[in-house]
Amino acid sequence: MERPKQVRVLQLNEWDKLERTLFRLKQGYELQFRLGPSLQGKDVHVHTNYPADGDSFDRHNLQLLEWQNPARGDDSDRYCGVDLQMSGSFQFFVSHGNNQKISSGFIVVDPILRVGHNNEVLPLDCICAQTFLSKCLGQLDDWEERLNVARQSGYNMIHFTPLQTLGLSRSCYSLADQLELNPDFSRPDKIHTWSDVARLVEKLKKEWNILCITDVVYNHTAANSGWLKKHPECSYNVLNSPHLKPAWLLDRALWHLSCEVAKGNYQHRGLPANINSGSHLNSLRTIMWEDIYPKLRLWEFYQVNINKIVGDFRDAVQHGEKKKCDTKQPLKVIQDPEFKRFGCVVNMSLLLKCFVPHGDTPEGIEECCTRVRQKLQELNLERYQEIHWHQEQAVNCTLGTVSYERLAEYGPLLGPVTKKKPLTTRYFTYHFEDMPLEQEEPMMYQPEKAVYFMAHNGWVMGDDPLRNFAEPGSNVYLRRELICWGDSVKLRYGKKPEDCPYLWAHMQKYTEITAKIFYGVRLDNCHSTPIRVAEYMLDTARRIRPNLYVVAELFTGSEEMDNVFVTKLGISSLIREAMSANDSHEEGRLVYRFGGLPVGSFAQPSVKPLVPKIAHALFMDVTHDNESLIQVRSVYDALPSSTIVSMACCASGSTMGYDYLVPHQISVVSEERLYPKYNPNTLPEYRGELNQQSGIIAGKNAINKLHQELGANAFYQVYVDQVDEDIVAVTRHCPSNHNSVVAVSRTAFRDPATSFYKVVLPSMCIPGELEEIVLEAKTEQRPTDPYKKDTYSINGLPEYTVNIQEHLQLKDSHIVKAERILKDHGDCVYEIKFENFPPGSIVIFRVGLGPKAQNTVAKLRHHLSQFSPHYKAGSVPDQEAPPMLTSSFASWGGCYGIDHIGPLKYAGLQGFISVLANIRPTNDLGHPLCENLRAGDWMMDYISNRLIARGGKLEEIGNWFAAMFTYVKGLPRYLIPCYFDAVLVGAYTTLVDITWNEMSSFVQNGSTFVKQLALSSLQMCGVGRLPSLPKLSGCIEGVPTRQNYITGEKEQCCVSLAAGLPHFSAGLFRCWGRDTFISLRGLMLITGRYLEARNIILAFASTLRHGLIPNLLGNGICARYNCRDAVWWWLQCIQDYCMKVEKGVKILKCPVSRLYPDDDSPPLESGTVSQPLHDIIQEVMQRHMEGIQYRERNAGRHMDSHMKDEGFNVSVGVDPETGFVFGGQRYNCGTWMDKMGESDIAQNRGIPATPRDGSAVEIVGLSKSTIRWLMDLYKNSKFPYSGVKAKEAGKEILITYEQWNEKIQENFERYFFVSEDPDNPFEKFPHMVHKRNIYKDSYGASSPWCDYQLRPNFPIAMVVAPELFTPRKAWQALRIVEEKLLGPLGLKTLDPDDQVYCGVYDNSIDNDNFNTSRGYNYHQGPEWLWPVGYFLRAKLHFSKMLEKKLYEDTVYLVKNVLSHHYDYLEKSPWRGLPELTNENGGYCPFSCETQAWSIATILEVLYEL
Question: Apex CA 462: angle with CA 458 and CA 467, to 5°?
Fold first, then answer.
């Protein structure tokens, strides 16, 4: 079985800030961009510079990705994608409309590295790299003997410092010629070339399985570079960067001071050549302030020439000059771009505007000039103070440098000041003869000389790495903040190749040479390299070597800032260093941070969200830039810390010298000795040779090989255990076979010879079967001569070696004793006791599951492989499988409570799946659900036993779970959560797929959103222990039955619809007529559940009484007939059924077994009286025309404790003038807005908040829809009645459905539309109008102002009876609904401008507020979801009628609104949509968490799309 393609999905949202977010992917993955809620429906474009198939990469060439939409309609599945087949950094841009940018970001694709003759893949996590200073390798012919040390130490990557010709300083990173090989590598009789290096690199790759990488240095060049003298424009010099002139002058002054100090000329001032005390530093401070700065007068470079400007001002005033300018700008000094003394100016036009003479007299002009002079003096003072501040910093930085270099014990202690070791490092080159400073200053203005005053490079502590500190606007050089490299000149690229053609071309050639030979590069000084330059050069390198491995060490101090470089440059690995840890706990934390997943992590799907990551690490025990571990910690820490680093699930590395214990830092500048060669037979006293006994080489060889084995065999789960303050245990675990390797290291951050370490060590426990000790090793001393620094070779401490034993049985260990303990559930645990484990020791165990557990896992994985190929690895066929496991799972057709989280939302699988969905992506193994699973088998038993108890097919499924869980229970407890998840997810996804395949083609071919909503319909449709519906006629086919669980007798078990969860899940309050039939079309007809829909329609038909169906069904026996609208929703559903279902009109002839043949009948047995459904429909219509008057049975407080006595009186009829159905009164509420007051304190008990008596707009619409339908049925001979009988002047007449239909049509807009005409003759209460161009909520209410309230009900009428509405008027009204009522998920139930509006529903508050107490505002503002479905459908209908552009805009609105529902659905543990929200989409704790009609109406919108 092939492994499924890995797909990562990046959801795009409107205001994403992704530029500093790292997304790492592998080649072969597919990246999909999908629209988040804020973008769905918009005209969104995604561009990327990832090349189209067959094209090469061009950073500036963007391709537009094409959208795919597997399911038409909403945008939940719409995506565009890229199939990633090349490594590097790729940018994407998201825009909409006319290329308005929304966001942008980068993806980094890892390279694929290969080694050996067969080009075997070297995973990045298998890398073991070692750094060599190239100049210490000697002549090229000798390299193999020296590099053999790396081979024999188990490394598979060698990092060379630059191989180019070095500058005068001999620093490895100060290159004199980037294009020439270092001549030191040649012999007098043989000149080596880059071709010789290439042959060596290729040999190491093919024969040694070692890849070679090297540094590239783009930021600077050696000060003596020959090409730089020919092309000084490549540097920052005082000619092309005149802002550096003051800094250059200060640098020269400090150089002259240094020379004088070296001569002893400042001895008398307290500043000798040998600076060794704080008083000397104080003297230096005084000299700088008293001698240097006054002489330099640096502030003059930033000031104006007052006399000149005043003179120019006087001349301008006298000649009457006036110029236009913006007087809002403050008057300020404009810096002279050439930085001449007093060369700055001010805006003369602004000066003339700001200073106007009082008259044209000479006196007035002079008085004005005096004021100008005063202002200019103020401005010059400001500049003086600014420069004074810079000078203070320069003094502090100079003293700090001198203190570090000459006083600090941790510094280099340079000794007396000399010309070779000056007071401070020079910031600029100077190739001329020293002269007095006053003679040197004019040279700044002589181009032929100024061009060679070049700024040195360095780094600035705490500076913004994205800012070039040598560019104008930076004062780093003036403030002496640069930690300067006096041997290297900073290079000036500009922003593009045209700005400095030679430099870009030169460095491009350098890059090409490097990429042709080496398999990777380390970006030296990456954080100071201009990103544009690095991008350009890396693009060049990747054109030559597409799978270029790029590493860098960043010192930005911020992970977010690191990401800027990693994402833009496509850095494969960031160098991280274990030496940054101050103790073993921090070192262990770094292991956990830099790679791997927790042990026991959940299996992830092949399609999952793309989540930000940290940069892949090249985790090094020490880098070549830092001090030796022996200097900072102790020699005994080398082995354990190396082991900890090597156990990290990332690349690992070291520096040549660490393994054989060189006790000092090998300086990249001053070291000229050579590395030792490898000789297996050498002796400790031979300083120029090494073997396995040298230092920790034998141990390093073993752990490097283990590191590669773990990476290659997918041991990518990691657990770090801090056994005590010095002992760290790192576990690497393979999830496919559950083998583990546990490395225990006793660190030695302190020297054991001088520090206290515990004698008695705590034991540790390792679960599983200990198969072997991979190795145990101790750092020991051996008899040999003590260390003496060698003259010719870089030698290490000869007296230390590693005593190592490999592949031992437990009984043969010299370090530990182990006791095997059997625990509950058959788990095996070994207690490890450390008997001889001194600091500097390690022991590594190989751990398996044991034969029984391993066999259990293998069989379990075999059964799980039917769900995912992920489980194929490590599986074996189960020859003894229980019968229920021998066929595939797909061939079958009170909730669990957890401590700290309470009961789950559902008793079935969804309850567990909803929780696991949040645990799995983050591997939250500490979640209470995981704790519960590890603690016992209760959850598994609950799932299987609950299903078994239900019998039938559910019993078979329960037995399948029980059998699978038998295997799971046999596993070590730490593995149970991930395998429990695997079993549940496999079964759940299979059942879900089966369910969707049973539904309509709309669902089967629908989007993810459609499918999830269709799945949500299952929450509401079910059969309880007791039947919820009354019995149907025995003549009807397809009515499901079962055996009663108490009596054993056969009983009907039709599916019923719950109104919502959790409040209406079961019992008397499960089924409501109104909720059922508002929901039925969306939940049952659209999803293809026609038979169940038919049964529900007929069941409610049997309960007809008074011409109405019940509001609360109560199984028909305890029904309550107190709503006017449910019967019209029922009739609308019959109409929908006839239209949606093939031959659906046959339902009209289905027999209905009447419970109540007349209003006063007791409930009759099924079959006593039967009538066809069309007779029941006709009875409804006839009773309404006749008028309905009755008092509810059993009326009183025992039925409804909140209702006043008058409220039990029900009245419904038809207005003969308008044809409108009307009804109700001020003391009851017969529509869906049915909140009855409950508070005695607020005195609203028994008073409906929204009686909506009169003709409610949606009832008028629903009745019109029904009448029109019956009229058409009669015309087509499918309904036997042409109309209803009525009395007129005492005579019985026939009112046909056609006449009734026309009457409503004629009168609807006349009486419901609130026009712009204030004199509308049909407006009874014009003074109550407060919104125009809307439709009234009702007509003829007892409180007339209620008619005029803006509510979300008229869009319902628009959908069911669109013919009632003039399209333009309808559109105007819908626009107002959108503006005033539309919230994130629902529609406000009342206009926010209404005085009784309150958008927050809280049923728990009982106070004296009449309008809100005990939730009185239930329908007075809170945002209900189900009306939004009708609003969106109405928008779609009328926009299509009006114009194309309007329709397109409406589709966008609909998709955008729906995206919020999709987002909610995805995140809800109930996997449904709520009843309502508080204002602006706020969560309402008193709402049903998932509501039938909310889901149904949103599904209907999707169906319309």
Answer: 70
